Amino acid sequence: MRIPFSSLLLLAFLFASCKTPFSEIEDRAYTSFTIVNETSELIPRLAIRLQDEDKNIKYDSLLIAPLVAHDSIILRYNSQYLSSDRTVGCRLYTWKSDCEPSLVSVSDGFSRTLAYNIRYVIKADTILKNWVKKDL
Question: Could you tell me how far CA 79 lies from the centroid of its own chain?
Fold first, then answer.
């Protein structure tokens, strides 16, 4: 059985580009938060922002996937650019028209090297342009 030379080149490139096993890359580069809807209502969209102690934005995201009552979703984000000696805050809001945003609880994920301090909440209706700050 003959393998085309182009396929061998592709395989060689893939192996050469993998410096560490995928599991190690995942452990070091990604962190997660579990976002839980503890209300009895449907939450159509969420927004989240991670900041360091100097309020430098590290991650912005708008989650469109709805959360039904007592449902949860795991938010995974690339954290390789965060240093382990910095605390990171999180603001999380859901949006309802003509009323205060509803707070959704956030619990720390499976981070092994980064210490996260969940201190912040975000409003989702501005789609990452006009973030409303409100302390928990």
Answer: 9
CA end-to-end span of the chain? 64
Q: How far apart are CA 95 and CA 103, in angstroms?
A: 9
6, part of any domain: no
CA distances from 35 to 20, 54, 83, 89, 107 (A): 30, 24, 23, 14, 7
Q: What is the CATH number of the domain that holds 95?
A: 2.60.40
41-61 per-position pLDDT tens digit: 676 666 566 655 565 666 666
Cβ atoms of 132 and 123 closer than 8 Å? yes
User: Model confidence over 121-135: pLDDT tens digits?
Assistant: 333 333 333 333 333
What torsion do the CA atoms of 34, 38, 40, 43 make, to the nearest 10 degrees? -40
11 belongs to a structural domain? no
Domain assignment present for residue 94? The answer is yes
